[in-house]
Specification:
about 325 residues; MetI-like fold; mainly alpha; about 0% strand
């Protein structure tokens, strides 16, 4: 186990350095000049040049990269070119919204996807299975922004049951009632991703339910739901956990469209704003956080396999 952890730790460092390098190079390829964007069309060439000197944008690319690596090793991801604040602080302010949205959407994904997949696998090609597959197909086909707009129109516009946009920090206000603002975006984001979990759960359960030990368990007179939940579901859970873990990572980092539709101050909307403003330090900082998030989630997922299946051993 210690050897496995050490290897994954080395992989974490290598993956992080690769992401930093690739992100830095991609930022240099974005057309446009952040100094020109910030000063506006009325700025003189002298003003633009002076601002570029202040930010170090006139330095050679390799010089900027070396300085960025040095700052990174010191725990400094730089300062936003437009907000004039540390990048980590800006990401931290936006991370709360994305975290709550990701957790709420994950509840929708697990609450809809797993039961739907398990129920569909009990009687394959039956009525329940066909209905679940139809709903899963619809979930995979419907764009999240369209579903969000429809939910907003119905529940916020016509019925007035839920707020349509915005989110106020729970850490600052201490009011858990602010989570009502995330119900609609969480469902629109989670429903689309629940389709993948449902299809994975169905496929995995169908494979396990055909195994000999399931037939033996039924022959012993065990109740059907006991056989399904105690014997079949646990052995079918590894592919499901894998899909859910990466779905959670994508929910935290990739809810750009949903956050834009519901005007949520999250990391997704921060990425869009930073790209439009050519705010390179913020873009690089967000990419770094997302890369670390995926690597950590992947590591924890690998460890969970040994808990789900005692036959798995890491060396």
């Amino acid at each position: 186990m210690l050897t496995f952890v050490a290897r994954r730790a080395v992989g974490l460092v290598v993956s992080t350095l690769l992401v930093i390098t690739i992100t830095f190079l991609l930022m240099q390829m974005i057309p446009g000049d952040p100094a020109s964007v910030m000063l506006g069309s009325n700025a003189t060439p002298e003003q633009i040049e002076r601002l570029r000197d202040t930010w170090g944008l006139n330095e050679p690319i390799y010089g900027q990269f070396v300085q960025y690596i040095v700052n990174f090793l010191q725990g400094n991801l730089g300062e936003s070119l437009f907000h004039h604040k540390p990048v980590l602080g800006i990401i931290g302010q936006r991370a709360e919204t994305s975290l709550w949205l990701g957790l709420a959407a994950l509840i929708v994904v697990v609450g809809l996807g797993i039961p739907a997949g398990v129920l569909a696998s009990i009687r394959p090609n039956g009525l329940t299975d066909n209905i679940m597959l139809l709903v899963a197909l619809a979930g995979a086909s419907i764009p999240s922004f369209w579903l969000g707009l429809m939910l907003m129109t119905l529940f916020a516009g016509h019925l007035g049951w839920l707020p349509s946009s915005g989110f106020t920090s729970i850490l600052e206000t201490g009011n858990l009632g602010n989570l009502r603002n995330l119900i609609l975006p969480a469902f629109s984001l989670g429903f689309v991703n629940a389709a993948l979990v449902a299809r994975t759960a169905r496929s995995s359960m169908l494979d396990v339910l055909q195994a000999d030990y399931i037939t033996t368990a039924r022959a012993k007179g065990l109740r059907e739901w006991g056989v399904i939940m105690k014997h079949a579901f646990r052995n079918a859970s590894i592919p499901i956990v894998t899909v859910i873990s990466f779905t959670f990572a994508s929910l935290l980092s990739g809810a750009v469209v949903t956050e834009s539709v519901f005007a949520l101050p999250g990391v997704g909307s921060l990425i869009v704003q930073s790209v439009l403003k050519r705010d390179y330090p913020v873009i690089q900082g967000v990419m770094f956080v997302v890369a670390v998030l995926y690597v950590v989630v992947n590591f924890l997922t690998d460890l969970s396999y040994a808990l789900l299946d005692p036959r798995i051993r890491y060396r």
